[in-house]
Amino acid sequence: MAWTLAPAVRAIFDETNARWPNRNKASDGTLGDQAHASRTSDHNPNSRGVVMAGDITNDPANGVDCNTIAEAIKDDPRVKYIIWNRRIYNPSISRTWRTYTGSNPHDKHLHLSVTDAGSNDTRPWLTATDPGGFGTMDDKKILEEFANVTKREGALLDALVDKITEQAQKHNTAARERDAKLFALLERIEAKLP
Ligand SMILES: [Zn+2]
What we know:
Elements: E1 4-5, H1 7-19, H2 34-37, E2 50-51, E3 53-57, H3 66-73, E4 79-84, E5 87-90, E6 94-99, E7 109-114, H4 137-192
Parallel strand pairs: 1-2
Antiparallel strand pairs: 3-7, 4-5, 4-7, 5-6
Residues 29, 43, 53, 55, 111 line the site of zinc ion.
């Protein structure tokens, strides 16, 4: 049977791959195997032929820490449920992590099922939340770039302050000259007074 992956699930894979190109994919999954096919699973294509779930391999050494990812995405409205490391988060039941007792402890990958309503929504999953929460080389690059921008902004600000100071000095000089003329005029008027 022809099947497609829900775009929202595709989006988290694309984002994860782009962010951590060296990540381990050993426990990744989309379409279910024979074992899945014999039971109800979002890894089996639904009535529209769409697989509504994805498994992301836990690989903290290469940046993919499923603890961090689980926390970052759990309140995204596209989440139907998440299973990670013997716990399940299903917001339609409870916005707390509950013990998961299924035969697969899900300690090698995070399972994400998406809702029907959210399945075509391909907005970023990770960058919109907790942008500083992932310790990666990418973040270092972003910080370096930010420092460069700040430095350039600092230089621009210095130039602006110089310009304002120059204008203020010109203004003061003009004001002093005006005052001097006025004073001279007053002196002449005073001299003519009886
Ligand atoms: Zn799964």
